[in-house]
Amino acid sequence: MKLIPFAEQYPGEFLERNEGNFNVFFDKLTQFHIGTRNDIGDGTNSRRRISNRFKYAEELKDCSINEKGIASEDVIGEFNDMISGSLRHQDPMTAFNIIPAPLLDVAAGLAILNLYTPNACWDFISGKICLYEKKIARMLGQLVNWSDAEGYVVTGGKQALIYAIKSGMGRAQLDSPAEIGDLVVICSNLAHYSIEHACHFLGISPENCIRVATKASGEMDPSALEQTLRRVAAENKRVATVIAVGGGTVNLVPDPIVEIKRVIDRSVQQLGLDYTPHLHVDTVISWAWLAFAKTSDSFWKKDQDPTVVNKIVSVVAKLEGINLADSFAADFHKTGFCPYAAGVYVVRQADCLIGLNNNSMGLGDELSFGEAEPYRETLENSRPANGIAAIWIALRRMGLDGLRKFILYQLNVCERFKQVIRKNHADHFEVLNDHTMGWEIVIKPKFHQKLSWDELQNSTVEEKQAYSEACHLFLKEFWYGPIEDETQKSPILGFIKSYSRKGKYEQAFPAFLIHPTSLHYNESIIRDLLTCFVNKKVRFEQNHNEMVVDEASEYLTRFVPPK
Ligand SMILES: Cc1ncc(COP(=O)(O)O)c(C=O)c1O
Predict the structure, then answer these.
(1) I want to staple 118 with a disulfide (CB 3.0 to 4.6 A). Which of 67, 103, 321, 385 is the partner?
(2) DSSP for residue 426
C-alpha cells in the first residue's frame, strides 16, 4: 500500500513543512474569534454568557469519544460552550481577585510558540528556551542584588512553595540524613493556605507544618519563630524551610524578612545546628514592587497621592530583606501581564537548588548548548515553554517602568474606590482595610444600616449570627442571581468567609472584596460599579426585612477558598 502522508489525509489541518500555509492558521484564528464573540454581548458583560447553573452529573451522563472527527465549525461551537461562563477580566465590573490581563504580544507569541511545541526539558530539543529561562531567573535575581541567581519557570506560587520546601529538605539533610517525619516547615498563621498541601505532596505531615503567631499588624512575630526553632531542635527535628510572607491577595503586609533571617542565623549559632534552614519569601504578588527598589531617584513620586507613595515605600523597605533569603517567587500571572501559568522560582545561587536534584550533571560555568537538562530538577519531565516565552515577552515589553506604572495605577484605582465609598455610600458599606499596602478593598455591608465593624465586634451572639447569615444570603443572590439573568451585566466581586484585620486579635466575620484588576478603570466606571452594588444591596434589604437562616447559602461559602 502506498504511504500517504497523514497531513495529506487532513489537508489544511497542520502546518506545512515549509510553513507556507500560515494564512490557514490566521484564518482559523479569525474563525475561532467569530465563533466566540457573540457571548461577550456588547462587551460590557462581566462574564461570558452562560445559560444556567448546570449539574455536572447531568452534563457528564452522555459523554463519549466520537468515532468520526467533527468539523471545525462544530468544534468552535463546543469551544465557545467550554469557555462560556468564564469571568471577563477586561470588564471593570469584574473585580473578583487578581486576574491577569495578558499583553496582546504575549498571546500572539504563545500562539506561534505552540505551533513548535518546544519541550523545555532539554535545550537540545527546545533551542534557546532554556537559556531564556536562565536569563529570566538572573534578571529577577538582580532586582534583589543577586548576581548569580538561578531558578525555574513554574506553574505558580504553589509549585514555587513545593520547590522551596524540597530545596530546603535537601539542605537540611546534606550532612545528617533525617527521617521524613523529622523534617518541618515553618510559616506564619497568615501565610498562604496551600502550604499544608505543598507539604503533603512532599510527605511532610500536617503537625510538621508549623504555623507561628503573627503580631496584630499581620506580620510574623520573630520571637514566636525563635521559640519554635528552639522547640524543633529540642525535639531533634530539622527545619527544611522557613517561609516568609511577601504579601497576600488580601492583606498585602510582608513579613519582617531581615528580622526573620537574623533569628534563623542566631538560632543556628545558639543551637549548634550543622545547617542553615532555607528561607523562602513568597512574593508571588509583591515581586513587582521590586521595580521601585531598582530606581535610585524618586521621580515616580511626583504628583502622586501621598497614601499611594507611602504604601509603595513601605512595601519596598520590607522587601529589602529578600537579599538575605535563599529564594523568592514571582507570579507573572498575577502581577506581570501573562496568562496562567507563568510563575518563577528564583534562588540566590545554584547550590540552593540542591534538594531538587537527584542526578545532577552540575556543569556550572562549563555548560554549553545541548547540555542544559532542567528535567533533572523540575517536577515536570515534558516541560511547557509557554511560561518562559510569556514572561520574557511581558518583561521586555513593559520593563521596570511599565511595572511601576502598573502598580501606581492599581493603587490609585484602590484609593478612588475608597473615596467614593466613603463619600457616597457610607450608609451602605464600610471600608475595613486601610492598613493593607495592596490595592484590594475589603468592605462590610451595613444591612439595614446597622452596626459598624467595631460595633459588631462587641455585639451580641444573635447580632453576630444575623450579620453572617445576611452576608451569606446576599452573596448567594449577588453571585448566582445574575447567571439566571439574560443580560449578565452585574458586577462580580469577591467574598472573604472569615475576615480579620488583625489575625487572632480581632474576631473574624464575612466581608466582601473588591479586587479591581481590570486595566480600564476611570472615575465614572468606579462610580457605576459601586452604584450597581449598592442598588443590589438595597433590593436585597427590601426583599429580606427579617434575615432568615438559609442553610443553602451558608453551604455555598464552603466553596470560597480562604484568602
Ligand atoms: C501569597 C500567595 N502564595 C501562593 C499562592 C498560590 O499561587 P498559585 O495559585 O499561582 O499556585 C497565592 C495565590 O493567590 C498567593 O497569593
Answers:
(1) 385
(2) T
CA–CA dist 320, 426 (Å, integer): 37
Report cis status (omega within 30 of 0) of the bond before 372.
Answer: no
Q: Is 374 exposed, middle or buried (0-12, 13-18, 19+ CB in 10 A)?
A: buried
Pick the atom of ligand 1 nearest to 157's CA: 7
331 lines ligand 1 (CB under 6 A): yes
Answer yes or no: are the C-beta atoms of 320 and 244 closer than 8 Å.
no
C-beta separation of 491 from 93 below 8 A? yes
Residues 495 and 95: beta-carbon distance below 8 Å? no
The answer to whether the beta carbons of residues 90 and 102 sit under 8 Å apart is: no
User: What are the cell numbers at 312?
Assistant: 509603595
Between strands 278-282 and 238-245, the pairing is: parallel
CA of 194 to the centre of ligand 1 (A): 8
Burial class (CB in 10 A: 0-12, 13-18, 19+), 68: exposed
d(CA 445, CA 431): 9
- Indicate which residue's Cα is closest to atom 4 of ligand 1: 157
Where b means 16+ CB within 10 Å and e means fewer, 315-336 reads bbebbebbbbbbbbbbbbbbbb
Q: Where are the alpha helices (DSSP H) in 251-305?
A: 257-271, 290-293
Whether residue 158 has its Cβ less than 6 Å from ligand 1? yes
Q: Which ligand 1 atom is nearest residue 246's CA?
A: 1
Q: What is the pLDDT along the chain (563 residues), one digit of tens a residue?
A: 999 999 999 999 999 999 999 999 999 999 999 999 999 989 999 999 998 889 999 999 999 999 999 999 999 999 999 999 999 999 999 999 999 999 999 999 999 999 999 999 999 999 999 999 999 999 999 999 999 999 999 999 999 999 999 999 999 999 888 999 999 999 999 999 999 999 999 999 999 999 999 999 999 999 999 999 999 999 999 999 999 999 999 989 999 999 999 999 999 999 999 999 999 999 999 999 999 998 877 889 999 999 999 999 999 999 999 999 999 999 999 999 999 999 999 999 999 999 998 766 666 788 999 999 999 999 999 999 999 999 999 999 999 999 999 999 999 999 999 999 999 999 999 999 999 999 999 999 999 878 999 999 999 999 999 999 999 999 999 999 888 776 667 899 999 999 998 888 899 999 999 999 999 999 999 999 999 999 999 999 999 875 554 555 565 566 666 66
Phi-psi domain of 247 (left: phi exceeds 0; alpha: psi -120 through 50; beta: other): left
CB 149 within 8 A of CB 174: no
Which numbered atom of ligand 1 lies nearest the CA of 340? 10
Residue nearest to atom 14 of ligand 1 (CA): 249
Q: Which amino acid is at 473?
A: L
Given the CA of residue 283, which atom of ligand 1 is nearest to it?
Answer: 1
- Enter the C-alpha cell of residue 109: 507569541
Give the 3-state secondary structure of residue 59.
helix
Q: Which residues of 188-207 are buried (b: 16+ CB within 10 A; e: fewer)?
A: bebbbebbbebbeebebeee
Q: Which residue's alpha carbon is nearest to atom 7 within ligand 1?
A: 157
* 393, 387 Cβ separation under 8 angstroms: no
